[in-house]
Amino acid sequence: MEQSTYRESLRVPVSWWIIAAAAVVTLFGIVAVPVGTMAGVVVGGLAAVLLLALFLRYGGARVEVDDTRLRAGRAEIDRSYLGTVEELTGDEARHAFGRDCDPKAFLVLRSYIRGAVRVQITDPADPAPYWVIATRHPDRLAAALSGHSVGRS
């Protein structure tokens, strides 16, 4: 197995976990007061399990670059098919996922991550003209894709 030159997990932020915990406690209270503690525990427990599974799945997306491949979420592509790499921050990143986005582009979007990298795809058989990948470190990911040395994140 090749050694990764860049690795990032797109985990959900702590604030989401805090809001989820507050929602579970609120659901418990809403059900437990009129119906009973056991019903509150069941509803709160189900909500907690559902939110845990959702956050782990949504936040489990990884971005990895090694000597031969780029992996983003569940997709991967050979680096020989990668063209120009562009760091996106601020409005550039927001527009890349929105108004300036080609409908055929492949996106790894996470609403809580403000940066991104756009990578042109040169494979003529691939319908996506480019990938836009959310990242907390656009400079590091772009450097890894451009072949410059970077540390793990």
Task: Give me some keywords for this one.
single chain, 153 residues, 2 domains, 4-stranded antiparallel beta sheet, 39% helix, elongated, transmembrane, transmembrane helix, DUF3093 domain-containing protein, membrane
Give a verbal description of the structure.
The chain has 153 residues and is α+β, with helices and mostly antiparallel strands. A hairpin with a 3-residue loop joins strand 2 and strand 3 (69-72). Helix 1 packs antiparallel against helix 2. It has four helices and eight strands. The relative contact order is 0.18. It has two domains: 11-58; 65-146, no CATH class. The protein has helices at 14-35, 37-58, 90-96, 138-146, and strands at 6-9, 62-65, 69-72, 75-78, 82-88, 106-108, 115-121, 130-135. The chain is elongated and about 60 Å long. The longest helix has 22 residues, at 14-35. Residues 149-153 have low confidence and may be disordered. It is 39% helix and 25% strand. The strands form two sheets. The chain has a four-stranded antiparallel beta sheet with strand order 1-2-3-4, covered by helices on one side. Strands 5-7-8-6 form a four-stranded mixed beta sheet.
